Amino acid sequence: MCNNMKTMGIAVLSIGTLVFVSGIIFYLQGNSIVGPTSSFMYSNPKWIVNGQWIAVSGVLILAAGLGISLRRPRS
């Protein structure tokens, strides 16, 4: 069971990392820092806020994954 929990923890950490990075990219696109100028997110204040919330969600998922992977099995 311990190996299964570690695998699940690593999977949740991976998902959290992807969500966090996506949020940062969306935030930067909303601020006109990265991305093509033809994107609907480019220089769009709505995506600044959306990117922040997506990044915060990614951090919460990362914290959950860290908690799962560091959890000790009950004896």
What this model shows, in words?
This protein starts with a helix and ends in a 5-residue tail after the last helix. It is mainly α. The mean pLDDT is 92. The chain has one domain.
- Total domain modules: 1
Strand content: under 5%
Helix content: over 70%
State the helix count.
Answer: 2
Regions with little confidence, pLDDT below 50 for 5+ residues:
none
Q: How many angstroms does the end-to-end distance come to?
A: 12 Å
**Helix/strand class:** mainly alpha
Element-level helix/strand string: HH
Q: Which keywords apply here?
A:
75 residues, mainly alpha, 2 helices
Write the layout of secondary structure elements.
Blueprint: H1 2-30, H2 45-70
Helix pairs in contact: 1-2
Give a concise summary.
This protein has 75 residues and is an all-alpha fold.
